[in-house]
Give the backbone structure.
Amino acid sequence: MLRNPHFAILLVLLALVVSACQPISAQPAQAAPPAAEWLTESVVIDGVGPSTAVDPEQAAAEDEFRTVALAREQAYYDEDYEKYISFYADDVISLEPGTPEIVGKETVAANIKGFWEAYDTVGELTLKRIWVSGNYGTRYAEWEEVVTPADGGKPIHQIGRCFVVWEKIDGEWKIVSSLLHFIEEPTEME
């Protein structure tokens, strides 16, 4: 038996990432859309839909989890700081491209506050898959965004994938780890 359940979840997450992520070089080049053709407001898309599980308890658990996962993504695009941070466990670990490991809810809170102050984001995130087993859930999503520096710099186009691992703590779903991956390197837009 593993002493740390978070480690087990990270191993499962790693296996899922390895199986789902293709090398950047395998992706066809995608030109950034002109800013005028981009979304005017952010959208969170439920690409999963209601559970199709035969077991009613499993179906209810999956639907509850999906609702929470979608609410977290909407809080991100709404820049609803209190709601967004409420989804994180105190000991969360987040891995993002080009940055050191982000450890702890307070660090995540400081990072997102700084990001929202520095950038305006318009994007589309599609929830692609969820997994629920007991008190653990994982969601996989893909996103495409344009982040524009608040100081007037050039907008940056980015496309990525992310896995977020959740644990039900005191009856509430909380994020315990996450991994973000760019499908292609972010590029400046004209």
About this structure: Residues 56-78 form the longest helix (23 residues). The CA atoms of residues 36 and 104 lie 38 Å apart.
